[in-house]
Amino acid sequence: MATKSTELPAAEIETVTAEPWNVIVHNDPVNLxxxxxxxxxxxxxxxxxxxxxxxxxxxxxGRSVLWTGEREKAELYVQQLHGxxxxxxxxxxxx
Length: 95
Fold this sequence. Notes:
The protein is of the alpha+beta class and about 100 residues long. The protein has four helices and three strands, in the order αβααβαβ. It has one domain (about 20-90): CATH 3.30.1390.10. Helix 2 crosses helix 3 (about 50-60). The longest helix is centred in the middle third of the chain and has 14 residues, at about 50-60. The chain is elongated, with a radius of gyration of 17 Å.
C-alpha cells in the first residue's frame, strides 16, 4: 500500500518562506504607553515620532504592524518583543 506524503515540494517550501511576514504588536492592559514606545525605539531603532505613531495605533486600534519582511528576521523581532513582555505575533502578509 502506498503512503501519501504530507511534505511540500521544495518549490512550494521556498515560496512559503520567501513570502513577507508581518510583526504585529497587540494592545494589552498592563504596559504603559511610554514603555511601549520606548521598546519600539530599542527593538526597531524607530525615531520617537514613529514609535509614538505605532504606540497610538496599538492603543486606539488594538494592534499595529511594526515590520514586514523575511520570516526568520520577523521571528527574531517577535522574540525580542516578548522579552520586553509585549504581546506580539507573526502573520503572513495578506492573511
